[in-house]
Amino acid sequence: MPAGDTGGMELRDYLALVRRWKWLIGATVLLVAGTAWGLSALQTPVYEARARLIIQPGQSVFDTSNLQTGAALVQTEIQVLQSEAVRAAVREKLGQARSVSASAVGTTAIIEVRAQSTDPKEAADVTNAYVDTYIELRRKQAIDGLLAAAAEIQNRIDSGQKQINELADRIANIPPCSGTNPPANCSQRIPLERDRDALVTQQVPFKQKIDQLQVDLSLKNGGAQVINPALASPDPVRPRPLRNALLGVVVGLLFGMGLAYVLDHLDDSIKSKEDLERISRDLPVLGMIPTVAMWKNRAQTRIVSQSDPTSSVAEAYRSLRTSIRFIGLDRSMRTIQVTSPNASDGKTTTVANLAVALARAGERVVIVSCDLRRPRIHEFFDLPNDIGFMSVVLGEMPLSAALQQVPGEARLQLLATGPIPANPSELLSSNRSAQVLAALRKEFSVVLIDCPPVLPVTDAAVLSAKVDGTLLVATVGTTTGKHVTRSLELLRQVGAPLVGMVLNGVGAQGSYGYHTYYGQGAGSVPNGAKPKRPTVGEGTVKQA
């Protein structure tokens, strides 16, 4: 984040971050989603088959099942279905036994069995094999249990019948008590007959139980029944390229925004007017210049105030002119120095367009090229640079002869650089330089000085003592907060008369929509509304 920014980010800050890094976020989304799609397409499709069976607790063979109800019983049966005994039986039946998964369907007594394979038919066969084997195993266990119970009951019946037969033999050897003279031992027959009848009565429920067990053996199904057998599915469960691509879009969006957030905080460049205001603190931003559309080659000079005076960019320079005029109401603003932290921040472009805007507002303006290292202002007006400021300072030519009239601008003249000296800083700090600027100040209402950048050389700091005001120019995405902070420190150390800053390269949807809305030029105020200082309104430069 830019230097001096200690506040939290608001929603508009996040939206601005997305706009700034939309190319990175978009590329990350495409990369992650494309990778997810490609990897999915390279994977072998896997198919899943599902079967469902219902557990019937009343027919479970285990004695402990009577104590189990609901979820506990279902979970017990799931463990049995996935046991090694079932797997071994499936392996013997199919020659191989893939693992399956099983789970209860909600809170019901229904179990869903699932198997996966690269062959949809194989997945269905494995699933059905597990279900059938489980039911067969359960049925066999149930039948074995019933047969064991039947054998135990039959043993009791046989034992009782043996006792009955023994009592019958004894009763047969005792004569009945009948007639007038019954035998002496006939009384022993009665208790034996009573015991025999009791044993016969006891045999009845055992025989009934045997009959019931025979019926159960014919109906026993193992305590489970298939509801839906597994079918071969034509649709794979994985991979799912579309679903994975959509997940990739979400992951890519989150990752891209996170990466943009990190890079944005590592990027110290100025991104908005708010960034610049936080850094400059009490120094106002007098002008916000939008990006010039269709101006891709910065090596080719362009003065928008001349070539497209009705554009929002030209209106921005007129707004800057108005702001400077308002400052001139309270203090002398005859000589204005324009500089920047580094080269390529747009200071020379600002000087050329501001000069045209001031001249067309009725001011007599002169541009002084004091960039004695890389002069360029003359290229904007297609004028020569062999004679100029240094020619006058060195006494090689009078000031009147060194001034050049700017074509098409009757109130604008240019004092080019002239011969490049070996010691620019010393010459700019000389009395002769101050005399030349003083002479220009008397002849013109506004003297705009194009200075070298602050950080590479000391020329701007030297000249700041000879001007009424200093404008510092920054560019969105190019100028860093650290460089602006250091430039302001250097200028303030020498007492430079800083009046404000200019921000170049703001978005086309910037703060100049009112120009299109009203269809008016600079200085137009709707219905006589009072302008707010120092950024809107009209005035005249204070004469000193």
Description:
With 544 residues, the protein is an alpha/beta fold. It has three domains: 11-43 and 239-265, no CATH class; 47-176 and 184-228, 2-Layer Sandwich (Alpha-Beta Plaits), CATH 3.30.70.1130; 268-294 and 305-525, P-loop containing nucleotide triphosphate hydrolases (Rossmann fold, 3-Layer(aba) Sandwich). It is built from 19 helices and twelve strands. The protein has helices spanning 11-20, 22-42, 70-81, 84-94, 120-172, 189-219, 241-266, 273-280, 304-307, 312-327, 347-360, 377-380, 389-393, 399-402, 424-428, 431-443, 459-463, 481-493, 513-518; strands spanning 47-55, 101-104, 110-117, 224-228, 285-290, 335-339, 365-369, 404-405, 412-415, 446-450, 469-475, 498-506.
CATH-scheme architecture of the largest domain: 3-Layer(aba) Sandwich
Strand element count: 12
Order of the strands making up the biggest sheet: 5-12-11-6-10-7-9-8
Chain-averaged pLDDT: 82
| Gross morphology | rod-shaped
* Strand-pairing-aware structural class: alpha/beta
The level of helicity is 40-55%
Secondary-structure map with pairings?
Blueprint: H1 11-20, H2 22-42, E1 47-55, H3 70-81, H4 84-94, E2 101-104, E3 110-117, H5 120-172, H6 189-219, E4 224-228, H7 241-266, H8 273-280, E5 285-290, H9 304-307, H10 312-327, E6 335-339, H11 347-360, E7 365-369, H12 377-380, H13 389-393, H14 399-402, E8 404-405, E9 412-415, H15 424-428, H16 431-443, E10 446-450, H17 459-463, E11 469-475, H18 481-493, E12 498-506, H19 513-518
Parallel strand pairs: 5-12, 6-10, 6-11, 7-9, 7-10, 11-12
Antiparallel strand pairs: 1-3, 1-4, 2-3, 8-9
Helix pairs in contact: 2-7, 4-5, 5-6, 8-18, 10-11
